[in-house]
TrEMBL record:
Isopropylmalate dehydrogenase-like domain location: 5-370
Reactions this protein catalyses: (2R,3S)-3-isopropylmalate + NAD(+) = 4-methyl-2-oxopentanoate + CO2 + NADH
Record's keyword terms, sorted: Amino-acid biosynthesis, Branched-chain amino acid biosynthesis, Leucine biosynthesis, Magnesium, Manganese, Metal-binding, NAD, Oxidoreductase
Name of the protein in its database record: 3-isopropylmalate dehydrogenase
Family: Belongs to the isocitrate and isopropylmalate dehydrogenases family.
Enzyme nomenclature, EC number: 1.1.1.85
Any one GO MF annotation of this record: 3-isopropylmalate dehydrogenase activity
SMART domains for this protein: Iso_dh
GO biological process, one term: L-leucine biosynthetic process
Source organism per UniProt: Achaetomium macrosporum
Subunit structure of this chain's protein: Homodimer.
Protein purpose: Catalyzes the oxidation of 3-carboxy-2-hydroxy-4-methylpentanoate (3-isopropylmalate) to 3-carboxy-4-methyl-2-oxopentanoate. The product decarboxylates to 4-methyl-2 oxopentanoate.
Gene3D superfamilies: Isopropylmalate Dehydrogenase (3.40.718.10)
Length: 380
């Protein structure tokens, strides 16, 4: 069989809980495809790696990540490592950088109509929201030179034209895919749309961002409409009228992308349904390596109780199948299974949701239900 090599890094707190469900889903896919194999190697990252090895990610784990086809990542960090140097979080940053996973796709979608109830935004405003934040993942303030003294600290926020341009190509590709997927009953804009969010009014790196983005769109990306928005007002618009960004890609820097993608969690009402893919290439241009992880963190406040929503991790598996393995049919089936489990109308009156979505199901019940529905979908 064709073998895909996956490095599995569950991490800390809820990480192992949600990873267990994601791996069940991967098992179901494997069972329906005798021609493929998912070879998995599981290791430590984050706080648990600090405890065992004194470092959030060992060189051996980094090398395994580099030599695997994809990394499935849970979540890291927690109060017990407050003040650790290096931090658990730096392990994740090192992996992103080492794998050159420069394009972080973070979809925001109200998955089923009845989930509008979980959103704090009025139903008529939030229903049908669907866009993707494309976050620059290997530069900006996260990776510039740092100086840290007791009473003064700084982070250098640098971008090169090259970094902005390569992300712009991804943002355009994502916008094209979203545009092509607009359902027939919805109005389709003439061109795919990219919204670029920056602080060109204040930051020199923001002005470079805007110039470099504008230049490459004028030179090479003529089929996609480009709009510029200041990142602060972007945050406001996303909350006030999220559907205004429907079927578009939000092209933005590392720090702004981190914040705007958590605003996505405010739109859905929970981070528990938001997956992400950090890619080392352009979607649609062949398989690329990637790190697949939820947008959310290790949720220490609810860990160890079976309360966490595994949907973000399960949808991250779907993204892995789509972008790293080109298994589009299986990726779509996982997404459909999640939708059916979350929406009673689709699932014979059964609605299986964790507490963050107003339900009472346990993490493992959601995972099991997704697996059951998925088996049926993949059998046909
Ligand atoms: P968080 O995302 O872990 O949690 C924020 C809130 O959302 C909490 O109330 C949590 O219970 C809830 N929540 C998050 N995911 C959920 C899920 N799947 N189901 C139900 N509820 C969910 O953010 P935080 O509390 O600010 O950070 C905790 C730790 O996680 C920190 O150490 C932070 O650095 C780390 N972190 C790690 C990652 C990652 O590993 N990729 C991402 C973000 C934050
Ligand atoms: C995320 C997280 C990470 C980030 C942390 C844990 C390094 O918040 O993936 O959104 O800031 O990128
Ligand atoms: Mn974040």
């Amino acid at each position: 069989p064709k073998t895909f090599r996956i490095l599995v890094l569950p991490g800390d707190h809820v990480g192992p809980e949600i990873m267990a469900e994601a791996l069940k889903v991967l098992d179901v896919v494997e069972q329906t495809r005798p021609d493929i194999r998912f070879e998995r190697d599981t290791d430590l990252v984050g706080g648990c790696s600090i405890d065992k090895h004194g470092t959030p990610v060992t060189d051996a784990v980094v090398e395994k990540a580099v030599s695997s086809d994809a990394v499935l990542f849970g979540s890291i960090g927690g109060p017990e490592w407050a003040g650790a140097d290096p931090t658990p979080e730096s392990g994740l940053l090192k992996l992103r950088h080492r794998l050159n996973a420069f394009a972080n796709l973070r979809p925001c979608e109200i998955l089923v109509p009845s989930l509008v109830g979980a959103s704090p935004i009025r139903p008529e405003l939030v229903a049908g929201t669907k866009f993707i934040v494309v976050r620059e993942n290997c530069g900006g303030a996260y990776f510039g030179e740092k100086k840290e003294q007791k009473d003064e600290a700084s982070d250098l926020w640098v971008y090169s034209r090259h970094e902005v341009e390569r992300l712009a190509k991804v943002s355009a590709a994502v916008a094209r895919i979203l545009h092509a997927g607009i359902p027939g009953n919805e109005e389709k804009p003439a061109k795919p749309v990219v919204w670029s969010a920056d602080k060109a009014n204040v930051l020199a790196s923001g002005r470079l961002w805007r110039r470099a983005t504008r230049d490459i769109f004028e030179r090479e990306i003529r089929d996609v409409e480009l709009k510029h928005q200041l990142a602060d007002s972007m945050a406001m618009l996303m909350v006030r009228n999220p559907r205004q960004f429907n079927h578009s890609a939000i092209h933005t820097d590392n720090t702004f992308g981190d914040i705007l993608s958590d605003i996505s969690g405010g739109i859905t009402g929970t981070l528990g349904v938001l997956p992400s893919a950090s890619l080392a290439g352009v979607p649609g241009e062949g398989p690329c390596k990637g790190i697949y992880e939820p947008v959310h963190g290790s949720a220490p406040d609810i860990s160890g109780k079976g309360l966490v929503n595994p949907v973000a991790q399960i949808l991250s598996v779907a993204m892995m199948l789509r972008y790293s393995f080109l298994l589009e049919k299986e990726a779509t089936a996982i997404e459909q299974a999640v939708v059916k489990v979350l929406d009673s109308k689709d699932n014979g009156g059964l609605e299986i949701r964790t507490g963050d979505l107003g339900g009472r199901a346990r993490c493992s019940e959601v995972g099991d239900a997704v697996c059951d529905v998925l088996k049926g979908l993949l059998a046909n």
